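1st attempt posting a full record on here, be nice pls
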Amino acid sequence: MDDGMDMDDLFGDAADLSLPTRPPPSKELHQRIDELRGGGCCQTVAWSNWGCIATITANGVALELRNLRCHPGTGDWGLSEPTITNAFTATLDGGPLKHLSWSPTGSELAVIDCAGRVTILSIFSSLNKPTLHRPCTEDPVDDLYGVVGCYWLNLAPYPPNRPTFLNGPAIKEGSNYRYEASQAPVFGPFHPNHAKSALVCVTTNGILRVLWPQNNGKYYESHTELESIVSSDDLITHAAICPDKSNTLLIAFATTSKQLRTVRALVDWGLPKTAEKLPPAALVLNPTIKTRHLAVTSWLHDSPAETLNASNMESSMAQLSHLEFLPSCGDASGRITPATIVAIRSHLPVSMTHYNQDVHTTVDRWEIRDKPQSVHPAFEQLSSRRNSIGSQPPSIVFLKKLDSFTVNKIALTMQTMNLGKVIFFAYSDSSVDYRDRTTMAETFTDQDLDRVWHLSQIGFSYTEDEPFALSPSCCSVVQIRNDGKIKWKQLDYHLGDIGSSMEDSQYSAVVAALALSCSTSVMRNVTYDDLLATAHKYVKLNFAYDWLIELSKILKAHMDYSEDQHYDVLIRNTTIQLCLCIQNSLGFQGEFNPRTFSGKFAWLVLQLRNIVVLVTMAANLNVPGANPNDKTSPLEDPEVINALAGSVRWVLDFLAWLTDTLLTLPTTLSSSMDLTKADGFSLPELYAHLRSTNTISLHLLLSSATRGFLTAICRRLTHLDYIARKAMVHGTTNPNTNTSQQPNNSPALSPALRSAYMQIATLTSNTIIRAKTMETLLASLTSLIKNTYTNNNPPYSGSPQAEKARNTLEIKMLFCGQFPEAFKGVIVELFRTEGLLEGVRGEIEPAKLFFADFALLEVDEDAVSVARRKAQKSTIDCFRKGWLSNPRKGEEGRRWRRCARCAAVMEDVLTERRALQWLVMQTRRCYCSGYWNTLAPGEMIA
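the predicted structure (as tokens):
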């Protein structure tokens, strides 16, 4: 007081005290919670394993299909424009559409309306082009038939008993990561055809429905009664279904009288005893369903006397919003967690006064437990037979209540990930969290860069807007906003720069997390496009190479074909296609922008691989004719030969371009570099030059995998040329048949087929470099590299350790890394005077090579070539390898397909002819393994 302190500073009332206020819940949130409480099965957005995102329109009368796609102009990722399916407008007797559910195959979508009528759509090749598989008109229009729980059966593992895999965590050891993995069994029941599933539904009036496809592709239904409904208290509001280790279904359902009941269901497919010897397509199914009641309790366990939370006495907390059934799984220590029922109740106050701001969600859980029964020994003495042994009574099932937990948010979405070990929750306030399945403790929050599981664990998060559906890879979300618009949100890093090399801890952790997510997605056959979109932000760094190196470690990739001459094994190596696809995607910056070094390399090799597959199948496939006993070769159909002609021209142009770049490479080097002698250059300096000029020719030759593709296509071109000339000379319809075995009355070659073969013969006759010449070069190079590996000190052959080291070198070259030091002599032998390339130079005409037009390859990246391509206003058909005129707005005509992943284009051609069905099957997916979007007439972008 002596210092003149102003007491008003301490006790003044200049500022009013007020309680902090939060924004009141929106009208849309109240509406959504009412929908969730009204009954189960009201998911209005669903993301398929193939990447198709289905949503129900705001008025509930139509379905919209979207997917992630790479923009052809910029290479950026985003949502495609919606494709509206109006097939439901004429069948709205059952009220608005209510629920969406994708099958595990990714190709069937169940669309359920308010009356429980089920429509099943299927997708064959295009993500936005569904076909009607099962109409809902077969189902009755009855409110009591409404679906309150549904589940698609797991796909039967193939081969049988094959587990599902989860890669992770990545554990830091020194400067590298070691990748652990776990596995879990796949629980049945399964559809007898391992490629098909069946939809199981529970209705309001207690009917268990199974919709299953017969071997003819049509859907049929079997059903049984779960519960005898005699009053409104018995009506089912929510139901959940999960598979069990006994290959039966566990079903939990909640009734309006607050009961929680459990049932076990067995699906007997009615197969004969000899079914194992029959192919799946020949199985005639006649399923029946048997059920057994297990246990019952009340899902509203709290009473006013047992709780201090007064809000629990409110009517809102006596209403379920979610009911989920989680199958049993193992935790990190190997302990088995029993099947668990999860019930969610949300409290959302009607008025938001200062004294009524309590918003929260309560999560209740029950485990399904078995309790063995014992018989008192005294009962054994009652037997009339002295030595009789009483049978052990079966164990009884009971529900063990686990501790509940409460969060001060409204839970809108719950999904499982990591083989069911982690649960993803999304809330109405824009936040998400991940919880351990067993303890329900939050996880992925430790920021531990030494033990990495997921991007969310190492600083990645979602920004604004509440998410609604988790992607199949669990690394992005899509939501329906309050204004009805669909928004896709990625996991982003908001804490600065991630670094630029594997020496940076954050950078290496991001690479490891992406590699784990990608490998697990690949093992589960689900799309990883959102991971490509996330990684696309870091393409300026050496990100693609680092990601692929880590991914190859997890997948234990085999990329060494330096001693393998069986190219069928190379073609079937889908890991190579996967890695090339990632390189191609991350290297794409737009149609008229230069690709990165590794992107250009992968883009050309993927096309080369695809042509090898097409020509191989056309030559070796036998297609059934109108008579099942008659089989014809696709090479007897002129349309097939015409389709292959473009591929033949592309390969011949590619071989000529490859030769040109190899012969001119020494002239592009600085004067200080001389490739004709070992001391005339350094490999790092040569590698830097190749990357700066985007010259990929040396990597194409020196990598054993790409050299194998080149050798394979040269051999197939030689064979195709032989068939064409033989067919024209002998004039038979079966050029594959030996002439000595042909009857004298063989029908003459049709004019259309003769003209088609004339195209092939003309192309191979007028080529700049013959396939045989390139094959000779490749054979000599393969022999030289094989000797180099053998004679190196230490040798890269002769022991498992040496072969592993050689595979590591081949992996680096395939991912466009540096050449091993041992290859210096190989490069000298290639370019020296009278070396391997001199033999090629002597068999070509330099003038033809100098004036050659390689426009079909689209490899020239100079400004003049790019301007010429733009002015041409046409696009290459990636399968037929011919030019397609760009459509104009509003112009009707043939439609395009565009790959959602790499933006490649092909004409949308469908045919019913058997001889061309093999071609249709090969075009089901893009050569990069991406799925298609079918574009609207006149459109060029999905």
